[in-house]
Design goal:
Its main location: membrane. Pfam families: HATPase_c. By secondary structure, the chain is α+β, with helices and mostly antiparallel strands. It folds into 3 domains: 153 residues, no CATH class; 95 residues, Orthogonal Bundle (Helix Hairpins); 150 residues, Heat Shock Protein 90. It contains 10 helices and 14 strands. The strands form 4 sheets. It has a 5-stranded antiparallel beta sheet, covered by helices on one side. It is rod-shaped and about 150 Å long. The two termini are 30 Å apart.
């Protein structure tokens, strides 16, 4: 696979390209501005030379020609005309020679207010301002001039102030180049930032422990993803090795445990025989508990579609078959909304009726529910199981009767090898709630506790579409 550029080199490259685009835009802008200034200056100088030719009869400047008319100029249909009178000294004083001008254009009406006298208040400067204004606007105008009531003269100056004489305005191009470069830079920054944000989001996902993170983006991000994937693979391999070792130990201990049970049956002292059998049960239970906890951490069981309600019914039925006080209760109706001025909130059952479909690991979920029921029977007198949820989450709730555990106890019991102070002589190694919490995390959920009427409620919240 081709090696991608690092973030440092890409950032440096983009900075250089951005600077080059800025310099190119500035050069194009200034060149276009300079060309327009030179164009307007030529038109202004031509106006000064035209005034000298009209007043003194001198030659016309290059690019201009004049034609004498027999009468006043006629305005073609649809054209617009602008009339201006310039005096000999100042345009606003009616004294000295008078120069009458008519500007006819098929496109625009020239704004008289925008025609400023540049370079002084003389009549020549006024005519130069007129020619400069004609050069400013893209049109093909006709200029007619009359000096002190003399004949009208048509001045043709398309090479100086016509549309074809105007230089190409590249200022919009310069702005487009600058905007494009800035847009591309922002897109690249957004892409890199989005890649790091997506990587962080994938890393926070608990499923990252069972799947490889996406490898892509800049070189630093790719190396980080590869390192994390290697670490996750190593961690998963360590867990699998631990489970394999524990499974082997559990299998190997089965034979001596069976021999111990057979030999303990030969002990005539019933009390001693009972204590020995309980020790054997505790030993095998401890191995099985650690093995189950490790398997829950690995989460190797595939996810499939299942009915959480049916699973809970099957688990509860197993406890009822041996006469234990465990029952399955219906979820309390939930309000469809807060209501309003015209209608009250209406209670409705849990969505999808009794099915409560979700994607999950059936064996792991059975283990989690069984552990909660065992804890409810151990620390309370009975267990009541409820299945509820909404469109996003499914909730398993196990409520006991008579439990006196505090919030500090509950926070402590979710750790490994922790048991309640009121467990007494009940069996167990303190991994039950830790296994439940791990299984809930494997399903994108969590384990919660709350006080209930007469006891304690343990709630397992599961994401219905986690995998």
């Amino acid at each position: 696979m081709a090696r991608r550029l690092s973030l440092r080199w890409l950032a440096s490259l983009w900075i250089v390209l951005a600077m080059a685009a800025g310099l190119a835009s500035a050069w194009i802008w200034m060149s276009s501005q300079q060309a327009w200034t030179a164009h307007l200056d030529r038109a202004y100088v031509a106006g000064l030379a035209l005034h000298d030719s009209l007043e003194n009869g001198g030659p016309l400047p290059e690019g201009l020609s004049r034609t004498r008319l027999e009468g006043a100029p006629a305005l073609p249909p649809g054209w617009r005309e602008t009339r201006i009178t310039l005096t000999g000294s100042r345009p606003d004083l009616a004294q000295g020679s008078r120069l009458s001008l008519r500007l006819q254009s098929p496109d625009i009406q020239y704004p008289v207010a925008d025609i400023q006298t540049l370079g002084g208040g003389s009549q020549a400067a006024g005519l130069a301002s007129v020619t400069r204004t004609m050069a400013r606007f893209c049109s093909d105008p006709r200029l007619y001039a009359q000096l002190d009531g003399g004949p009208w003269v048509r001045i043709d100056g398309a090479p100086l102030w016509g549309c074809g004489a105007a230089p190409t305005d590249l200022r919009l191009l310069a702005g487009a180049i600058l905007a494009s470069a800035l847009g591309l830079l922002l897109v690249w920054v957004s892409e890199v930032s989005g890649a790091f944000a997506s990587f962080a989001e994938a890393l926070r996902d608990p499923r990252a422990r069972n799947a490889e993170l996406p490898v892509g983006g800049v070189d630093e991000l790719r190396l980080t993803a590869e390192a994390v994937n290697a670490y996750v693979a190593q961690d998963r391999a360590a867990l699998e090795n631990r489970a394999l070792v524990l499974s082997g130990v559990s299998h190997d201990l089965g034979t001596p445990a069976t021999r111990l049970r057979l030999r303990s049956a030969l002990i005539e002292d019933a009390a001693l025989r009972g204590r020995l059998e309980r020790d054997i049960d505790e030993m095998t239970g401890m191995i099985d508990g650690v093995l189950t906890y490790t398997r829950a951490e690995i989460g190797a069981e595939p996810f499939r579609q299942l009915s959480l309600t049916s699973l809970a019914e099957a688990v509860v039925a197993d406890y009822q078959d041996v006469g234990l006080p465990v029952r399955l209760a219906e979820a309390a109706p939930r309000s469809a909304g807060a209501g309003n001025l015209f209608a009250r909130a209406v209670a409705r059952p849990a969505p999808e009726g009794p099915a409560m479909l979700m994607r999950g690991q059936p064996t792991a979920l059975r283990r989690a529910l069984s552990n909660l029921i065992d804890n409810a029977l151990k620390y309370g007198r009975e267990a009541e199981v409820t299945v509820d949820g909404d469109a996003d989450d499914a909730v398993l709730t196990v409520t006991d009767r008579g439990s006196v555990l505090t919030e500090e106890d509950l926070a402590r019991l979710t750790g490994a090898f922790q048991r309640g102070e009121n467990a007494g002589a009940a069996g167990g190694v303190g991994l039950g709630l830790a296994i439940v919490s791990t299984i809930a995390a494997q399903h994108g959920g969590r384990l919660e506790f709350g006080r209930a009427e007469g006891g304690l409620a343990a709630r397992v919240v599961l994401c219905r579409r986690w995998a």
